[in-house]
């Protein structure tokens, strides 16, 4: 297994559709990588790139970038993209809390957050990919009309995100609490599935989805949320709870 990872690391560094901490491409993804002016869509924590590949197939007039820190996983998606001649796909290895260093303001039209680690422990809340500290970064690179698509099996993370958005004055455009149990859910949400989505669904977990805009995100609202969150955290800690928000 270690040898396979080392091989993939080496190949990832040389593949034409993979990029490792490519600061030099900030503001130049369309001109230097995709060679067109199509909208750019990101998938955060893309893993093996299943969602990235599926979306790129459905929307050939958009450019997709799968982002993760583990290149041995992205190698799988990058290899498939090359084999299938999907030229509207790239994979970028970075740490997500520095995402604003790799894209220019307004360069990204849409972001997908698919089945991220829920970080259910209260002390780990700042690592949740829907936490305001990340939303602030996303807003820096999103087009003003850009959207966030969030899909998860985690009741805790979904509940946190709903509460957080209400506290910072953002009303979701769409909320689905049981994607596969709703016959009227968007076909895209039902038909494009990752390995983990199939795994969670088979275990009886409901898949949830939320779409929202960051247009009205403000520092004042975030400050108020953080004050509320800290007060709630202290209450739970006093009761001996390590999860709950």
Describe this structure in words.
- The protein is an alpha/beta fold and 245 residues long.
- The chain has one domain: 3-Layer(aba) Sandwich (Rossmann fold).
- Helix content is 39%, strand content 19%.
- Strands 1-4-3-2-5-6-8-7 form an 8-stranded mixed sheet, sandwiched between helices.
- Strand 2, helix 3 and strand 3 form a beta-alpha-beta unit.
- It is globular.
What keywords describe this structure?
8-stranded mixed beta sheet; single chain; alpha/beta; Rossmann fold
Mean pLDDT value: 95
What's the number of helices? 9
Question: Which bin fits the share of residues in helices?
Answer: 25-40%
Helix/strand structural class: alpha/beta
Distance between the first and last residues' Cα: 38 Å
CATH topology: Rossmann fold
Cα radius of gyration in angstroms: 18 Å
Percent of residues in beta strands? 15-25%
Find the CATH superfamily: Vaccinia Virus protein VP39
Broad CATH class: Alpha Beta
For the secondary structure, the number of strands is 8
Strand order of the largest sheet: 1-4-3-2-5-6-8-7
Please sum up the structure shown.
By secondary structure, the protein is α/β, with parallel strands linked by helices.
């Amino acid at each position: 297994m270690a040898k396979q990872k080392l091989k993939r690391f080496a190949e990832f560094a040389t593949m034409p559709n993979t990029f490792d901490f490519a600061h030099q491409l900030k503001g130049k993804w369309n001109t230097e990588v995709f060679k067109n002016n199509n909208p750019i869509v990101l998938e955060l924590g893309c893993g093996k790139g299943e969602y990235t590949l599926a979306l790129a197939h459905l929307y050939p007039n958009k450019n997709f970038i799968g982002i993760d820190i583990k290149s041995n996983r992205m190698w799988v998606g990058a290899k498939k993209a090359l084999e299938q001649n999907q030229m509207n796909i790239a994979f970028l290895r970075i740490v997500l809390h520095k995402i604003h260093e790799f894209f220019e303001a307004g360069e990204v039209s849409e972001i997908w957050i698919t089945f991220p680690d829920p970080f259910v422990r209260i002390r780990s809340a700042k690592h949740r990919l829907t936490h305001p500290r990340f939303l602030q970064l996303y807003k820096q690179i999103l087009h003003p009309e850009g959207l966030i698509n969030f899909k998860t099996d985690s009741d805790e993370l979904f509940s946190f995100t709903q509460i957080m958005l209400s506290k910072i004055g953002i009303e979701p455009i769409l909320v689905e609490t049981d994607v596969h149990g709703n016959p009227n859910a968007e076909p895209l949400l039902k038909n494009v599935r990752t390995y983990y989505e199939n795994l969670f669904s088979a275990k009886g977990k409901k898949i949830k989805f939320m779409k929202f805009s960051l247009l009205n995100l403000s520092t004042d609202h975030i400050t108020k949320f953080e004050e509320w969150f800290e007060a709630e955290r202290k209450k739970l800690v006093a009761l001996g709870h390590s999860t709950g928000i």
